[in-house]
UniProtKB/TrEMBL annotation:
Chief location category: nucleus
Localization: Nucleus
Keyword Mitochondrion: no
UniProt name for this protein: tRNA (Cytosine(34)-C(5))-methyltransferase-like
Record's compositionally biased regions (Basic and acidic residues): 16-27, 795-817
Keywords from the UniProt entry: Methyltransferase, Nucleus, RNA-binding, S-adenosyl-L-methionine, Transferase, tRNA processing, tRNA-binding
PROSITE patterns found in the cross-reference section: SAM_MT_RSMB_NOP
Organism (species): Senna tora
Listed InterPro entries: MeTrfase_RsmB-F_NOP2_cat (IPR049560), MeTrfase_RsmB-F_NOP2_dom (IPR001678), Pre-PUA_NSUN2 (IPR057285), PUA_NSUN2 (IPR057286), RCMT (IPR023267), RCMT_NCL1 (IPR023270), SAM-dependent_MTases_sf (IPR029063)
Domain of life: Eukaryota
Binding positions for S-adenosyl-L-methionine per the UniProt entry: C194, A195, A196, P197, G198, S199, K200, D226, D286
GO MF: tRNA (cytidine-5-)-methyltransferase activity; tRNA binding
A Pfam family that the UniProt record links to this protein: Methyltr_RsmB-F
Annotated segments matching region Disordered: 1-52, 795-840
Length: 840
């Protein structure tokens, strides 16, 4: 499973208004820097001037924080000012992962080396040493070079195509690190709290699926959540390439992610309920951040950077991380990560959550894991900068800034009063260990001294050196911060003394960084205090998110009612065919229904001869309760089914934007007029269902399979293997599956499906077979087959040689797609455009 998504690109929906990173259309005199000329060679436009890759506030800030030594400073900023080299990852679940790796190792490594600038001894491309199995690669070409340099075209085309298909993912090297430290297992329930655009979700799914056999599904699952709907769509598009039935995409504020806890009454009622609340084995908390670790990719940030960006996000980051920990099972791991270098968004957040969890959460020492990854220890001392002043302790915070600068942002995590109290305790001898000499007076004095010391330069007493900071000049990457946390016991009931008032200095914070590291200022406006584990009250949805029907103000009562899914059906008068419109609980999101229409299910099972071993009961869902209008039927794994059942029992607390694997699609009227079954198998669903299909399936010789991919439609009489042509002619009209045969007498071969089996969906028309695979997928599959089977040079087996009356199909005599064209709406007419089925 996975990595064989045959989806059509719908990029236009997702193109962000992101500025092109290393060029600027209109010169901005205020930000021009005559010294920053190092990227000028990249552009063909002589009037182009590079970004000002300098910001004195940035320099002052990070020099003072000491994230690198003063001797290293020049090397550090020097690398930050150069474009980021491209990196990518082979999808471990792809059928072609070994082929792709071998192509990189044996072909591109050599051919691309010629393109490396003379005198530069760096490798053109190389595997990232810390990533398992040579699956992640670093290239010394920037994205711009790949786009502009014609001799790199073949490699660039390779990256684009394989990325689109889902065989590789282009991803920043450092962004691949957090999932590696999560220790995810195939049976894990994983929560990815801030998941869009989804590169780490994809990695997590790969791990879940890593040892899955053909036709089976892992026990684990991933819930990928993001606050931003548009970005959720991008995430759905990304993860569709994975072809997984083990994913739910949700759209919540992560700090209020619902716990879906069943109350006791429910529990007694639903005796067969397997899951009684949402708790996860692993949580990825890749929070929104200021993103200055991405400066090499987004140099525009040089101009925008200011200290308010990090300070303003601190409270939200703490809230999200706390929510993640409360949803984590005891014994589970949570990785907290940012692409920011700022200690306020990093060590200060980690320190605060450790304090709040009071020993129930440990910061894990991962220095022995993935040791080839060069990382620096986390800081134990830092300062806060606010409104142009350096603050060494909370004592230094002016009164009017006390709402914006919090005690917990400082290394001691204490307010002045806390320290005074602490000294007082020391004075009275409470809670203070006697000194080794038993001299309490000297101990008290020592504490006082240390408290006073902290006023001048605070040092955290937590083991923050266990955090990891990746800096760009260590291994030619972006920057990243990672902390691995383990929950060792339930989080105690603590009263949060510090009520973090989320106050953003809007003058300081730039609200738009249109990148994967988006700063979401608006999300903060509705942020509330996180619910502690002990009072994990059921999540109350935001009123504005609830579907209450047109022009009805949402009252508290409405939202209560909305918690009862059955009562939320409302009849809406529409002008179209559909009079009855079932509204879901969440505004703008189609509701999820278990699909139980026996007539349709039986007709599908019967038509394709689907073995009963593939369970349908409770595994099929739709986004439309009107079965006569259902367009798509999705398949969900057992784990996802369990979560869905729980979600129904708790009043649909989860706002689900996407769920499961698209398995069946209704034939359009043109396609389906002559087909006995109204549904075809979707290309995403084919790998899962393939081992269970016993009808409408044929095995083609490599030559005939190649011809299908090349010509898209082949007349029955034109197949090289006449027996295959005959069998194809005898199929029922409509959708069918053609498997690439391995043996000699392919058409009569008994079908054995395993992970390496390659199959495509076709349409059986009156006179021909027509492939139902996108042009791009055909191209990619052909390329892979040519490499793997060496079939370009002619028939693979002697017996397959065409006889004089079985002339192979050439371009000039390629079969007309007359009959197929009548029925198939564009041979590749697979419409993947909708993330959810709002138009069903
Ligand atoms: C650093 S990016 C995540 C990158 C992602 N993990 C990946 O690897 O592709 C942060 C994400 O957090 C989302 N976000 C911002 N505020 C949020 C909130 N309160 N709850 C959930 N997501 C939020 C943003 O929309 C953004 O997509």
């Amino acid at each position: 499973m996975g990595g064989r998504g045959r989806s059509r690109t719908q990029r236009k929906h997702f193109r962000q208004s992101r500025e092109n990173v290393w060029k600027r259309s209109k010169p901005d005199p205020s930000s021009q820097n005559p010294d920053a000329t190092d990227d000028a060679a990249e552009t063909p436009n002589p009037t182009w001037t590079p970004f000002a890759t300098q910001n004195s506030a940035f320099d002052e800030y990070y020099k003072e924080q000491g994230i690198v030594t003063s001797e290293e400073w020049d090397a550090f900023v020097g690398v930050l000012r150069t474009p980021l080299p491209a990196s990518f990852r082979i999808n471990a679940c792809s059928q072609f992962s070994a082929d792709l790796r071998s192509q990189l190792e044996n072909d591109f490594v050599q051919t691309l080396q010629a393109e490396v600038v003379e005198g530069d001894d760096a490798e053109a491309i190389k595997p990232l040493p810390w990533y398992p199995d040579n699956l992640a690669w670093h290239s010394n070409f920037s994205r711009m070079q790949l786009r502009k340099n014609q001799t790199l075209e073949r490699f660039h085309e390779f990256l684009k195509l394989e990325n689109e298909i889902g065989n590789i993912t282009r991803q920043e090297a450092v962004s691949m690190v957090p999932p590696l430290f999560l220790n995810v297992q195939p049976n894990h329930f994983v929560l990815d709290m801030c998941a869009a655009p989804g590169s780490k979700t994809f990695q997590l799914l790969e791990i879940i699926h890593q040892s899955t056999k053909a036709g089976s599904l892992p026990d684990g699952m991933v819930i990928a959540n993001d606050l931003d709907v548009q970005r959720c769509n991008l995430l759905i598009h990304q993860t569709k390439r994975m072809c997984t039935a083990n994913l739910i995409v949700t759209n919540h504020e992560a700090q209020q992610f619902p716990g879906c806890r069943l109350n006791r009454n429910h529990e007694t009622l639903e005796t067969d309920q397997h899951i009684s609340q949402l708790l996860f084995d692993s949580v990825l908390c890749d929070v929104p951040c200021s993103g200055d670790g991405t400066l090499r990719k987004a140099p525009d940030l040089w101009r925008k950077w200011n200290t308010g960006m990090g300070n303003g996000l601190y409270s939200l980051q703490v809230l999200i991380a706390m929510r993640g920990l409360s949803l984590l099972k005891v014994g589970g791991r949570m990785v907290y990560s940012t692409c920011s270098m700022n200690p306020i968004e990093n060590e200060a957040v980690v320190a605060e959550i450790l304090r709040r969890c009071g020993g129930s959460v440990e910061l894990v020492d991962v220095s022995g894991e993935h040791h080839q990854l060069i990382r620096r220890p986390g800081l134990r001392r830092w300062k806060v900068r606010d409104k142009g002043s350096w603050l060494a302790s909370y004592r230094d915070v002016p009164k009017f800034r006390k709402n914006a600068v919090l005690p917990s942002m400082f290394p001691s995590g204490q307010s002045y009063q806390d320290l005074v109290d602490c000294n007082h305790k020391a004075d009275t001898g409470d809670d203070i260990d006697k000194g080794a000499d038993g001299n309490s007076e000297s101990s008290t004095q020592a504490v006082e001294n240390s408290a006073m010391q902290e006023f001048t330069e605070e040092v955290s007493d937590l083991p923050l050196e266990r955090c990891m900071r990746i800096v760009p000049h260590d291994q030619n990457t972006g920057a990243f911060f990672i902390a691995v946390l383990q929950k060792v016991s339930p989080i105690p009931a603590i009263s949060i003394q510090e009520k973090p008032k989320i106050e953003i200095d809007k003058q300081c914070v730039e609200p738009k960084i249109e990148d994967s590291n988006v700063l979401q200022v608006n999300s903060l406006e509705s942020t509330k205090e996180v619910l502690e584990e002990v009072n994990l009250t059921d999540h109350k949805p935001r009123a504005e998110d609830l579907e209450v029907g047109p022009s009805v103000a949402c009252t508290e009562q409405d939202s209560e009612e909305a918690q009862e899914p059955l009562k939320t059906e409302s009849i809406t008068k529409t002008t179209g065919k559909r009079k009855l419109q079932f509204q879901g609980k969440w505004r703008g999101v189609d509701p999820v229904f278990f699909f139980k229409d026996e007539t349709i299910i039986n007709s599908i099972r019967e038509f394709y001869g689907i073995d009963e071993k593939l369970p349908f009961n409770g595994h099929l869902v739709t986004r439309n309760n009107d079965t006569s209008h259902v367009k798509r039927i999705y398949y969900v794994s057992k784990s996802v089914k369990g979560v869905l059942e729980l979600n129904f029992s708790v009043g649909q607390q989860l706002k689900i934007t996407s769920i499961g694997l698209k398995m069946f699609e209704r034939q359009s009227s043109r396609e389906g007029s002559s087909a006995p079954c109204a549904f075809r198998i979707s290309s995403e669903g084919l790998p899962l269902i393939l081992p269970y299909i016993t009808k409408q399936i044929l095995c083609a010789s490599p030559v005939d399979f190649k011809h299908l991919l090349q010509y898209k439609a082949v007349k029955f009489g034109d197949f090289v293997d006449a027996e295959f042509g005959e069998k194809a002619a005898n199929l029922m009209p409509g959708y069918c599956v053609v498997v690439l045969g391995k043996g000699k007498r392919t058409a009569s071969e008994s079908l054995v499906v395993d992970e390496s089996t390659i199959a495509i969906g076709c349409w059986k028309g009156k006179a021909s077979l027509t492939v139902m695979v996108t042009a791009m997928d055909c191209r990619e599959l052909l390329e892979r087959l040519l490499v793997r089977l060496d079939i370009d040079k002619g028939p693979v087996h002697e017996d397959d040689k065409p006889s004089s009356d079985k002339v192979p199909v050439h371009e000039e005599n390629k079969p007309s797609s007359d009959d197929a064209g009548d029925e198939v709406q564009g041979t590749n007419g697979i419409d993947d455009s909708e993330a959810t089925e709002s138009k069903q």
